[in-house]
Specification:
single chain; 201 residues; mainly alpha; 9 helices; 74% helix; elongated
């Protein structure tokens, strides 16, 4: 992380280049190093967990929020956003998930999963990835998150259709959310593809 003395010298906040570097290095530390090294290095695992606990995942997520959608920090930001929705409004998320699951034709097998993750499974997956302790294949995690976002997108669109006559303003907001979730799903799928090609940075 940026030394506080160096940060104090910066006028007008952190330089965008420095912020981008911090976003990428913290994302690499949580994902690449955790996956490749943590299994044989308990001290590294401890440091990664400590980083998240001391700095807070919210601080890191703020760094990631400005990153390109198909970059590693951009993908982690989207996983974080899905996790936060699941944490803050589990009832609404569950309702939209159920609506979307009834309609959305998502591949039934995602890396051995019988079906895309439900809200509780998505939150567990996100917790593992964002804590730096996820040791599975990241592309699989991103594809599962994408499938989850697609189902939520469909559920939000259906909810918007039903509200259209009674509450147009809310229906419009839900339609925008559905579009945003679809964009999130597409970005996560693109990030997963780049990970498989060794190009997700």
């Amino acid at each position: 992380m940026l030394d506080p003395r160096d940060a104090d010298k910066l006028v007008g906040g952190i330089d965008p280049a420095v912020q981008a570097e911090l976003a990428h290095s913290s994302a690499q530390a949580l994902v690449a190093r955790a996956r490749d090294e943590a299994a044989g290095d308990p001290e590294l695992t401890r440091r990664l967990v400590s980083l998240v606990e001391d700095e807070g995942i919210e601080t890191l997520a703020q760094l990631w929020s400005q990153a390109a959608p198909d970059s590693l920090p951009g993908a982690l930001w989207r996983v974080y956003a899905l996790r936060e929705w699941a944490r803050r409004d589990p009832e609404t998320l569950s309702e939209r998930y159920k609506l979307g699951q009834q309609r959305q034709q998502v591949a039934r097998v995602v890396a051995g999963a019988v079906e895309p993750p439900g809200p509780a499974e998505m939150r567990q997956l996100a917790d593992a990835v964002l804590s730096g302790l996820f040791t599975g294949e990241l592309d699989v995690a991103l594809e599962r998150a994408a499938a989850f976002a697609r189902i939520l997108s469909t559920g939000s669109a259906l909810d918007a259709d039903w509200l259209d006559e009674s509450d147009r303003q809310r229906a419009t907001a839900l339609t925008r959310r559905a579009e945003s979730l679809l964009t999130t799903a597409e970005a996560l799928e693109a990030a997963a593809a780049k990970w498989r090609q060794g190009k997700l940075e």
